[in-house]
Structure formats: structure tokens, C-alpha cells
């Protein structure tokens, strides 16, 4: 496991963007596919802004990139301004030369009877693309990765093998999302579709970015407690996963580390 504490939140974003750019440039140079697992939320915004800038100013090209987003609210229309599909369109997809057919986001508008099936297809497509070259992650205040919320009744091995699926959002997650939904908790979807730990933890490189003092407590738990399904991000410490993981923090997020 590699731990980087950047001087500022902006430097943390630049550090993550450089890692992603390295993979994108390599794919472009060798004309091979690069598969990226992407996150939404506040944390990656400056990372995407830097990738867009590099595309504009340094001509880095996304033509060989294939993306799979981690999660989507459920139910939600892909065209909803608050959907993660819309977020990705606004922050990245519409601003770089990523082929539209290469950008995958779970569809929050599939009928309930097909929600899990849609997730299973997502897993199959990722597997068929050879797995993820890089998974970008943020951490929820409850330690979630993607929308894999704490599930203390499961063993670590069972949790680590979970497929992509429909999940019920944790109260903490919905409370944190309420601001985006006009401060109205009732307007926050109760469910989500999420890529499962099986695919996330198998990525050839995992970059976890956490910024700000609101993340300090959970970052300290995820990095210091034994892997536990009470803190899903602690599974990044598993011996078969840790060598592929880079944590990038700002000083506030790192402030409670021993
Ligand atoms: C988003 C996602 C979530 C967020 C996490 C942190 O696609 O998978 O796990 O990364 O909730 O969100 P922010 O960055 O808004 O603090």
C-alpha cells in the first residue's frame, strides 16, 4: 500500500490525475485499450478538471479509453440533472474525446425486476474488457467504496466477493447526499446500483482519494483497523489487494492518522 499526503487538496487532485494520465497516454501511444473505473461526488471533480485541461492543452487523447462508473442512484433517470450519468457527462465525457459508446454508467431507470440483471451485465462487460486497469475511489463517511455500504453481518471474504448489484443506501450516505437534492432527505433515492467489491478489488491499480477533515476519522479507521466489513474501505488492506493500492490524502484527511 502506498500512502501519499499531498500539500493541498489541489495537489492531491493533480497527483491522482497524473496517475490516470499515465495510463491514458500509454494506451494512446501503444494503440491498446485502457479500462478505467470512475467515481463521482465532490472528490474527483478537480481530478476531472485537470484531465479536461490536459486534453485541451497537452492533447492527451481518450480515444482508446473505456470507462465504467462505480455507481448510480436508483431509481433515477439518466437524464436527471442529479444522476451520476449527468455528472459524468458534465465533468468529463462531454469535454474529452472519449467515444460515447466507450462510457458505461449503470442505468438507474431499469425496471426493478431487472436491476440486478443490469448489474450482472455490467460485471460481464468489465470482465470481457479484461478487468479494470485502474479504479478511482472516494470514501464515504461510513467507509463505503462505490455504494458498497457497511454490512457487518457478512464476513470479509463474503463481502470481497460480492458482485455488482442493487443496494439500499445507508442513512449516512443519504444524509450526505441531501444537500445535492435541495436539502430534502426525502428526495434522495433510497437505493443505488453499485459495482461490487469483486470487480473493484481486482483492478490492477486502485487510487483512493480522500480530502477534508470530514474524512479524517474514517480514513484513520480504514488504514489502521484490521479489514472489517464495518468499514468497507479497510478491505483495501487485504494482502492480495494492498500492493495495488495508492491512498492520496490532503493534510486534513490525514490529520487523525497515527
Ligand atoms: C461515488 C462513489 C462514492 C463517493 C464517496 C465520497 O461514485 O462511489 O463512494 O466516492 O461517497 O463522496 P465525496 O467525494 O462527495 O465525498
List the helices and strands and how they pair.
Layout lengths: L1 E4 L3 H22 L3 E5 L6 H14 L6 E5 L1 E4 L9 H8 L11 E2 L10 H14 L5 E4 L18 H5 L4 E4 L2 H7 L13 E4 L2 H6 L3 E5 L5 H9 L20 E5 L9
Parallel strand pairs: 1-10, 2-3, 2-6, 3-5, 6-9, 9-10
Antiparallel strand pairs: 4-8, 7-8
Helix pairs in contact: 1-2
Bound molecules: fructose -6-phosphate.
The site of fructose -6-phosphate has 14 residues, from loops.
Task: Provide an overview of this structure.
This is Glucosamine/galactosamine-6-phosphate isomerase. It comes from Isosphaera pallida (strain ATCC 43644 / DSM 9630 / IS1B). Residues 9-237 form the Glucosamine/galactosamine-6-phosphate isomerase domain. The protein is globular and about 45 Å long. The chain is 33% helix and 16% strand. Strand 2, helix 2 (45-58) and strand 3 (65-69) form a beta-alpha-beta unit. It is built from eight helices and ten strands. It has helices spanning 9-30, 45-58, 84-91, 115-128, 156-160, 171-177, 197-202, 216-224, and strands at residues 2-5, 34-38, 65-69, 71-74, 103-104, 134-137, 165-168, 191-194, 206-210, 245-249. With 258 residues, it is an alpha/beta fold. The strands form two sheets. A seven-stranded parallel β-sheet has the order 1-10-9-6-2-3-5, with helices on one face. It has a three-stranded antiparallel β-sheet with strand order 4-8-7.
